[in-house]
Predict the structure.
Amino acid sequence: MRRSLRPAAGPSLALLALLYGPLPGALPSKVPAHECGRRPLVDDTAEGSRIIGGHDAQLGAWPWQVSLQAQPAPGESFYHICGGSLINSNSVLTAAHCIKVNMSPESWRAVIGLHHLYKPHFRTVIQKVSTITIHSDFEWGTFENDVALFQLAKSVKYNDYIQPICLPDTPPLLSHETSCYISGWGSTYEHGKAVRILQEARVNIIPQQICNKFDWYAGAVSLNMLCAGTENGSVDSCQGDSGGPLMCYFLDDKYYLVGITSSGVGCGRPQLPGIYIRAANYRSWIDSHVSDNKTTTVSIQFVLIFSTAGWVTFHLIFARSSRDAQQGRAGKKREKTRCPPFCVLDRRCGVFVRRLLAGWRCSCCWARPPARTPGSLQRVSPASLDVGRRNPRAHSHVSECGTRPLVDETTEEERIVGGHDAELGRWPWQVSLQVHHTHGRYLHVCAGSLIDYDSVLTAAHCIQKRTTPELWRAVFGLRRLYGDKIHSVNSQVVKIMPHCRYDARSHVNDIALFKLSQVITYNDYIQPICLPSTPLLLSDRNPCYISGWGLTKENGTPSYILQEAEIKVFPHEVCNSYDWYNGRLSRNQLCAGSESGHVDACLGDSGGPLMCYLPDDDKFYLVGITSFGIGCGRPKLPGIYIHAANYKSWIDSRLLDKTSIVSIPCVLIFSTVVWVTIHLVL
């Protein structure tokens, strides 16, 4: 298959769940996670399913494949325009550029469970389209955000020939061992005719840095895209395949929608593989626009419940606000850390009330600066970031992540190859996590990274059995491990949150968050590091570093002076090759160091940062969290790090965790809401 240049969501417990859970029509996931991505008519354990070249697919091979067909004029026949993927019972995901034919939903239909394009079988379902949603930022020239959603007029029933495909929550890490496929009814060669039998082919996911080489796509592939096919062009998608799935098979025996067929130069040309939209990067957009059959039947009872709850909350808030305002006019001075009730609600109450009061902010109520999503990037592409060069020292006390006030980022001496002593203030987000020992002494156990005013990110394995927060403290602004008292700040720990699915054997999900007892004030020696919202596209222009107080060699002694080293981040397929880690790395891990082993992390560095510099953005980003490795500094066994971007949503949810400081007004309001709801329902 090839391609021409184509634009081609007891009763009292249930009520509480209703109040704290998502609102109807805004569910966090509309995909049937336990049932998606399966092929009832195909044995996925058979080697015969691993097809290298394009050929006819068997009936029922890809039960989520959809043919989107348009009608040129009323009364005329429908004809195939693009492919699509069924993601739930009434939603089809496709490419935005397909819609140029006709924007009217009445002119479209979706045909599901199809094998021969114009010969439906007894299980084929034809559905009208009710709405078409195109990404608002879709660009014709670059095909950026080339994604669209078709809502069907009726829900389809699943059977052996019709199934939804799974959507990944985070970008999966793909290796050469991952089985990935494309399918469609497009042309079988450039400028050729479309086929009538569904075609399938196995493709290779080509690393981004290769796709963007000057003799390939020369930087045209953004972080929201990926390319797949073969280097020689023998397998590719083509005109008519647009909008169709790029799907990969994982060890949970399911297929996931990794990409949406988007664009390319010609079909089957060497070093010009197909370009696909990364589905995982648009998960929040998809969830916000997907509806299912439940959301179309919201009852009047729901409307009454939520209207009444809103009314009660509104009156409680403003009654309290008015009273506080009157007290203020009478000359009673309010403490700075005491908040008007609506600020407390917006900050500390549950999802239900925060949604009712969405957008309310006030500057008077923050006992600490507002939690934010540190350094969030919707698309992290250095070339696309319009950030001017600034004097780093001029912003030393501004809550700007990833900056180093005491270091001039323009100097060439930044590129350190071997490990050596770091200068004071060089890594202002570096944290020493220490455990209380005896006689008031604390001992360094692991490192961490400051990502917010009161939050430190580290590795879950550092905690082990020391789960009591009172045993721990975090020390910031350190260079000498047990010195530097002039610039360092100590804080006790109030909460430790390891990932609930951390596996001590495989070190999968080796991530934890420490919440501090106090707010850390930023200065020249203490700054937060930025977190990427999507995996960074790294090149030679992006130097990466590790730092810590760990051992300087295997079975050696720890360093009391902070060490630093520049390292190389290796492609996943290299790390998992048989003479390296032999497939041990999961898609949430990455490896970095040097092939010879002369630069590496070691015992005592765990939990510390793997950070990379984006020159155009003039910031450092936390790419990895030091996790584990085999020995220290061994050839072809570099350090393994947790892929920080893959845990962005987990981190964000923990940063906003305020369950320990829910105020009395919150309790009163929720109690009232529950009382009103019970009386309405009963």
Observations:
- The mean pLDDT is 75.
